Amino acid sequence: MTTNTFFLKDMRAENYREGLSPEEKALLDRYAEEMEQGPADGEMDITWMETGRGYYSHLHFLNSIEDAEDRDLYLQKLREDIDTRLSEDPNNYMVGRVRELVVGKV
């Protein structure tokens, strides 16, 4: 299944892009661009959250997982990704917001 969610660990893995289809590569490029730019303002942030753009795509995907075990595994990877991203960029609003919504306020 093709999704528009990517984890930093995978994105940094050598030869990761080589295993992706052209569609997945395009999604990865869009995701990376959205992560770099972020939403321009609060209204755009709400739109991105509602439509699952940028890091908010993880929320949409997480909510679509029906199997509890699969959901827990994805949530574990997401928490690790959040920790990594926030250790590198503590001011990343989207990642911090997803952390609040998934893990709770810290």
Shape: globular
Largest sheet: none
Proportion of beta-strand residues:
under 5%
How far from one another are the termini? 33 Å
Number of strands: 0
Please give the count of helices.
6
Helical/strand content category:
mainly alpha
> Helix proportion of residues, in percent?
55-70%
In terms of quaternary structure, the protein is: single chain
Rg result: 14 Å
Order of helices and strands: HHHHHH
Mean pLDDT over all positions: 90
Low-pLDDT stretches are: none
Defining key terms:
106 residues; mainly alpha
Please provide a written account of the structure.
With 106 residues, this protein is mainly alpha-helical. Helix content is 66%, strand content 0%. The chain contains six helices and no strands. It has helices at residues 8-12, 22-37, 42-51, 57-64, 68-88, 93-102. Helix 5 (68-88) runs antiparallel to helix 6. The model has no long low-confidence stretch (mean pLDDT 90).
Write the layout of secondary structure elements.
Layout: H1 8-12, H2 22-37, H3 42-51, H4 57-64, H5 68-88, H6 93-102
Please provide a brief summary of the model:
66% of the residues lie in helices and 0% in strands. The chain has 106 residues and is an all-alpha fold.
